[in-house]
Each structure stands twice: as C-alpha cells, then as structure tokens.
Design a protein that fits this description.
alpha/beta; 7 helices; 5 strands; binds magnesium ion; five-stranded parallel sheet; single chain
Length: about 150
C-alpha cells in the first residue's frame, strides 16, 4: 500500500511545493489530489480514498480549521490524519488545531525535512510504524542486497 495524499491550499505554488517535498521524502505515494479550499477538499474525500491530508489554514470559502472540524464530526473520516502547513504560528491557533485533533503542525516557511518528520510521525500514529516502514525509502536498499 502506498499512501494517497490530499494537499489543500489556496496557493497553487504552495501545493506544487508541498507535492515536490513529499515526492522527495521517500514516502511512497499512490495518488496525489489537490484542493484550493476546505470545501473542495471535502468534495474530493467523497470520491477518493485518502490516507493523509496536508492542509493550509487560511483559505477562502472554507478554512483548514473548519475542514478539520467537519472531518472530526464524521464517523468514517474522523481518524484521517490532518497535518496543517500554515503561516498561522500563533499559540492560540496551534492550541485550537491540537484540541481539534490535528495530526501535526508545520509552520511556513518550512524546510523539507520538517514536512517529512511530521508526516512520518502522523502516518505512524495513524497506521503503525510497520506499515509506514514498508512504504518509505527506508529499508529498500537492504531489500535490493538480499536479491
Ligand atoms: Mg492560504
């Protein structure tokens, strides 16, 4: 199983950057999906299986906090890990995200390594370390040597 990832941000440039960082992280990706706001993100979730969401907070139509609130109110989607990637680094906003059950929090501007670390931690918490190890670059060299 590779992870299907939904990137939600109103900036197309930021979505492309986040996608690039994830591609370079060694985490195996099945499908990438993109949305420009929380509403579009929820629409994508209706038609696609998503394993983790990387989500902006400040967006028009529906912001990231409201999107997370909607997911947490849904029996099926409440366990889906949501990682915020945002310029909203205030203590109050971080506390609210944490209280709502965000799986991680990355402040913009970010370094690629931070996204990778926070993603791995969130994926391990949601799906177990073994599942994540099987779907990252880690260990693949050893496998090659065995053959
Ligand atoms: Mg934004």
């Amino acid at each position: 199983m590779a992870f299907n990832i939904l990137i939600v941000d109103d900036s197309g440039t930021m979505r492309a950057l986040v996608k690039r960082v994830v591609e370079m992280s060694g985490i195996m990706v099945g499908e990438f999906h993109e949305a420009g706001n929380g509403r579009e993100g929820l629409d994508i979730l209706e038609d696609n299986w998503i394993d983790v969401i990387l989500c902006d907070i400040n967006m028009p139509v529906m912001n990231g906090i409201d999107m997370l609130r909607r997911l947490k109110a849904n029996d099926v989607e409440r366990n889906l890990p949501v990682i915020f990637i945002t310029t909203e680094g205030g203590e109050k906003m971080m506390a609210e995200a944490r209280a709502l059950g965000a799986a991680g929090y990355v402040k913009k501007p970010f370094v690629p390594e931070t996204i990778k670390e926070v993603m791995l931690k969130a994926l391990e918490a949601a799906y177990g370390a073994e599942q994540v190890a099987e779907n990252t670059g880690a260990g693949s060299e050893e496998d090659d040597m065995d053959f």
